[in-house]
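Tokens as discussed.
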């Protein structure tokens, strides 16, 4: 099934079936009539399921098809006499759903469950019968689909409906794969229903099922569902887009010629590649039209380049950017940084001498399979490596063993990246009511990009793009994050509201006081639903708890002591006064440089100080400087901490215990519980500076001490 070349017709007067490019359209009515003729001889598959077997063998040549034959016979017998609203025998529906999954490359267990997915709900077949005949794994999936099918999809029931759906499908993503294929076939045949019911089903599909398909990476289903929903909910825009595509079909298409040029370039470079022209689907054309206005011939499709190895992808990219003019703003590397739904490809765009701009997608064949089928391409994501191959070929013993291993803990390991499904399941349990869950689910599914940040202990956290340190705190610590008072990002102290970027390292700092709690303004920075629900719950249960405070502006507090002796640096300029620069406060044995400034004085800087380059650019006279034999020195230190009572007293006491004199001290007003102290200190011996900085860091609440 193509994820891009689709041609939806969703209204009653049009044919609802979508043709796969290059394949003969399958007549589901004919298949239904064949199903009613009863079972075929045991030595071959029924004609009605022959298309499924052919599609399945294309992806799994060694698959055991006998289990599919048995599943089909049970489904056909149990559904015999039932009819769909379209007038077709009911068996055509599970056949069509199974064919969709077979073309995506689903493994045998999923196809078996797909054939049987309506039997337990709509016929006299029991789940125990399915388990006895096909094993625990198939029964587990059929049970999950049955629970989803029992959910009332009425408009008023939407919040609770999808909470139940998430719980029912959360333990096995294959349940959702079958549900998506089921919805796709229902959308294809929606024309027999009343317009108002079509619109209601299309809205549910748009709001939840399409984002779930995107999350699972099943682009082939997602794009076709988008087109069908587009035709129902936006008929005028759909007609306009169809007219644009029809008009383009009568014009000369530049993309085949560009594809031929790409083939020639790669052939000359010795890169084995398959080059295809992929037409855009309806919604994609509509989006491009909104973005670019008037469409040109090259805007109706993209060029797809398939290669064998990852390294070949970058080889293709180099040749394209060498032989064509690249559009730099269109380049994206989803191989080095895969998308949250397993998607990997290189995206670029090149301009031809004729003035056309063609978008190009470069990926390996394995990446292409995953891009089309997403989690369906994983086979059985819950089986062990040893059992996966047997499960793919329909081995009942392997499937049963995998099911027992998975059911041991009742909750299966989340195969999605980076675990968004498990995250949804976690916070839906904490959602206080269905409406909160519903709004949170829609917000979560609307996230189109994920980032990965590293924890201080070496672990990782998966968060939506734009997440803050607050989100990271709740993702790592749960409700214990109520006591979070600050964070370090990439080693530097920062506020809790700071946004995180992909690859950041975050260290979260928790208060020792168990009575600490979040402030109401945390909700302004929380992006994830888990954080927002936890913060809101705490604030509701602690109405007298912390509230956002605004600190009035005031002058910094300064404490000035007796000034120490003169500088202990000597310049090779007789009688010139010497002073140590306050910007870098050099101390022995720092390597220093001196410059003559106004008044004939010599200012001494550390050589790595930024002011050194500025002095040289201004043409200041450079003077050699050396340290006196005396070991005393003056230095400026910055201490960053979280506000608490008696902090200034504890810091000055720690400094005094080291035998150091405080020349001056400045304490800035607290900002988001953070306090910045600046100390100018006179040390009796420069060698004691490291010990002094360690002593200051040991003061409770102090998280960073550095040279100015």
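Sequence:
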């Amino acid at each position: 099934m193509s994820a891009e070349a689709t041609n939806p017709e969703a209204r009653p007067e049009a044919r609802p079936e979508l043709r796969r490019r290059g394949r003969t359209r399958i007549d589901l009515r004919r298949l239904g009539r064949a199903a009613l003729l009863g079972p075929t001889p045991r030595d071959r598959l029924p004609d009605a399921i022959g298309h499924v077997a052919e599609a399945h063998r294309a992806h799994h040549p060694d698959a055991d098809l006998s289990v599919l034959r048995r599943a089909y016979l049970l489904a056909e017998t149990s559904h015999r006499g039932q009819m769909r609203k379209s007038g077709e025998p009911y068996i055509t529906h599970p056949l069509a759903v199974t064919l969709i999954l077979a073309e995506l490359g689903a493994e045998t267990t999923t196809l078996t469950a797909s054939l049987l997915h309506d039997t337990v709900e709509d016929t006299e077949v029991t789940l125990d019968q399915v388990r006895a005949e096909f094993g625990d794994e198939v029964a587990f999936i059929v049970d999950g689909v049955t629970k989803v099918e029992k959910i009332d999809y009425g408009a008023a029931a939407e919040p609770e409906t999808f909470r139940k759906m998430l719980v029912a499908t959360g333990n096995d993503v294959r349940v959702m794969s079958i549900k998506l294929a089921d919805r796709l076939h229902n959308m294809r045949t929606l024309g027999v229903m009343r317009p108002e019911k079509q619109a209601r089903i299309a809205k549910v599909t748009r709001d939840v099922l399409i984002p779930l398909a995107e999350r699972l990476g099943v682009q082939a289903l997602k794009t076709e569902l988008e087109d069908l929903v587009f035709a129902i909910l936006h008929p005028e825009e759909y007609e306009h887009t169809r007219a644009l595509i029809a008009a383009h079909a009568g014009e000369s298409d530049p993309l085949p010629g560009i594809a031929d040029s790409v083939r020639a370039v790669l052939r000359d470079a010795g890169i084995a590649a398959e080059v295809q022209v992929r037409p855009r689907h309806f919604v994609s054309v509509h989006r491009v039209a909104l973005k670019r206005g008037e469409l040109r011939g090259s805007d109706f499709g993209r060029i797809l380049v398939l290669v064998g190895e990852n390294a070949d992808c970058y080889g293709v990219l180099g040749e394209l950017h060498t032989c064509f003019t690249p559009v730099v703003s269109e380049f994206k590397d989803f191989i080095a940084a895969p998308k949250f739904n397993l998607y990997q490809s290189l995206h670029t765009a090149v301009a031809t001498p004729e003035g056309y701009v063609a978008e190009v997608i470069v990926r390996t064949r394995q990446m292409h399979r995953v891009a089309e089928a997403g989690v369906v391409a994983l086979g059985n994501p819950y089986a062990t490596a040893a059992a996966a191959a047997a499960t793919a070929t329909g081995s009942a013993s392997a499937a049963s063993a995998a099911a027992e291993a998975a059911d041991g803990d009742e909750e299966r390991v989340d195969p999605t990246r980076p675990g968004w499904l498990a995250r949804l399941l976690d916070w839906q349990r904490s959602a206080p009511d269905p409406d909160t869950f519903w709004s949170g689910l829609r917000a979560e599914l609307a996230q189109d990009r994920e980032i990965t940040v590293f924890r201080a202990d070496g672990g990782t956290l998966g968060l939506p793009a734009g997440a803050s340190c607050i989100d990271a705190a709740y993702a790592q610590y749960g409700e214990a994050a109520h006591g979070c008072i600050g964070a370090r990002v990439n080693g530097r102290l920062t506020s809790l509201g700071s946004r995180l970027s992909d690859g950041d390292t975050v260290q979260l700092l928790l208060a020792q006081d168990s009575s600490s709690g979040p402030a109401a303004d945390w909700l302004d920075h929380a992006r994830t639903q888990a954080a927002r629900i936890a913060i809101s719950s705490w604030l509701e249960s602690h109405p007298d708890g912390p509230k956002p405070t605004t600190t009035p502006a005031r002058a910094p507090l300064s404490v000035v002591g007796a000034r120490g002796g003169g500088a202990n640096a000597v310049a090779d300029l007789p009688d010139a006064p010497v002073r140590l620069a306050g910007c870098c406060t050099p101390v022995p044995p720092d390597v220093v440089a001196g410059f003559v400034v106004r008044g004939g004085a010599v200012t001494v800087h550390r050589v790595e100080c930024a002011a050194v380059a500025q002095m040289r650019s201004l043409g200041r006279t450079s003077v050699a400087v050396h340290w006196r034999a005396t070991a005393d020195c003056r230095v400026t230190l910055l201490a960053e901490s979280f506000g608490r009572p008696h902090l200034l007293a504890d810091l000055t006491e720690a400094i005094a215990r080291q035998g150091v004199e405080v020349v001056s001290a400045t304490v800035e007003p607290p900002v988001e519980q953070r306090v910045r102290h600046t100390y100018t200190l006179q040390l009796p011996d420069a060698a004691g500076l490291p010990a002094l900085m360690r002593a200051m860091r040991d003061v409770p609440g102090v998280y960073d001490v550095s040279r100015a």
